[in-house]
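Hi everyone,

Forwarding the result from last night's run.
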Amino acid sequence: MSDRELEDATTAEVRVEDPTEPGPVRGSSPAPVEGGNPEAGSQALRELLERTRLQRLAELRESSPEPRPEDVAKAAAAKAAKPERSVGRSKPRADHLGASQRIAQRVARRTVGKLVSGTTANTQPVPIVTALKGTPYQAPVQATEPSEDEARMILDLAADIAAMMMRAGAGTSDVEVSVIAACTACGLATVEVDLTSNTLVVHYSTSDGRLLTVMRVNRGESTHFAKLASVHKLVTDLVDGRLEFHEARSRLDAIRTQRRPFPEWFTTGAWGFMVGALVLLLGGGPIAIPLGITMAIVVFQFGKLLGRTHLPSFFITALQAASATLIATIAGDVGIISSPQYLVAAGIVLLLPTQSLYSAVQDALTNFPLTAAGRVVGVFMTLAGIVSGIALGIVCGQAIGLSHIEVLVPKTSPHVVTAILSMVAAAVVSMAGAVAMSARRRFILPAALVGLASHITMMSLTLLEIDNVLASLLAATVTGFLSRPLALRLGAPAIVLMIPGIYTLLQGLSIFTAVYQIASDSENVTFAVGLSSLFTAILANAALAVGAVLGSYLALPLKNLKSQSSAEEKVESVRSGETSTAVIDSVQPGGAKTQSSGPGGSGASSATGASGAIGTSTSTGASGAIGTSTSTGASGVSASSGASGSAEMGKLSTDTGPIQS
């Protein structure tokens, strides 16, 4: 291949020509100074340009394939058609790479740039609606942005929902997703939620830049699972579009004054029955069961009496644990019962911060470190009060001359009757726990089912001689796995069934045994052994909370599959233009559904009273047209379809307003 053909080849991107006029060339030797020999400078410049030209031609020979004649002809024709530049200098290349190497470099730079920068800007904030993924509110019906006054009212509603849930005993993650779901369903898609152990801040910025902030402070907890279930149902209806703002406000005000499903004396008796069933579950005799019920009622009332003095909870818990220990020790010394340790262990379960421990572990595992730290401090102080109270009771018993308790009970072989009685006791414990937590009546039998399954799992793992901590973890995983789908189907959060189910697995006897070994003077057991046993017992109780959270997350696909399938059915029905014939009734005063069909068959309509709940109806006019109409108040979404003589989807329009009729 000749040099001229290489210059005309299409792969030669830069062509070097002789300069039209003398002068300095970028990248070449500097111009000779004044007074020097100009001919020598020009000759050196020409030699440098010639060497550069020859070097590039050699590179092109190595990197370029043999051009075809038609390619050479096309290149020559393009060169002839292109006008020559009369002014200017040729721009020499800054590098000496071949064409293929330059192409490879460009491709590599483009690929690396995509990998580093990504398809989206990595500094953009994550939408808050993504926090609803994996929750019962993962597909909210979103409305358009409301006005400033309406936004403030929506923020107040969401903050009141959160405050009520926090006081009723909900976990931090449940409170956060409920606030986000309520705000998103009402049109506040850019709301921000900041939640700590006892403080909630909800912040929203309007489209014109105005800032709205609402704060709530929780200064105490009063476990009320019935109220928690009612709030959960309220948020669910709001997210699904079956409720508008003013009706949600009215329902929330009614929930605020909702009474407990059982009277106070019945709840106190439920705590007593739970302790009595725990005594039977641990292996106590027939006399120890009624004594345990009586002891639990006395300890419970004693704690309420101490609470009126505004004494810190640490001292109240310590005094309750000391009184339970003394009652059991005196009963064993007198000879009423032969195993007082079972009585003390059941009393310890009554005092254990089960719900706080579960919430602390859940917050730690769901990225709420500050709230988890605050709850852990509270749990630690409660456990310290229990340990201090047991030690105080043991020391006081030894001081007044009470007999020594044999806490190390030898293991016995399982018996059929014993196994049946323990399963019945486990079911009673869970049922009594649900009643004591003020759950509704429809949650009592599911709680018994969850507690029974947890106890059977724990008993099976114990027979297989699996370590106590690992067995507690696996049994609590079963509890969480069963609690979530059952509770959501009943319209309540998973904690409503999870806490009563965990009561059958709590390690009260291990705690009492370890503390007794530490406090009592024994030559066979050292202080280090007792301290190790106490740490193991606390670790086993913490494993229960971890397992419950794990089981709840393992059960997520069970609910998600159902939600996704229903959402896909809705989308397919909308795409296919099918008319919905379901009629959704809302419980509200003054609401009424109307149906109308005119001569032209313009469609159907649904209307409500002051609250404007959602409704769906169908009608057929004289010409056979089918139409539907749906309207909501809070979310402000209305859709209508219908035409004379045809059935087709209408236009989707949105509107907002706190009141729609």
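The longest helix spans residues 369-399.

Cheers,
N.
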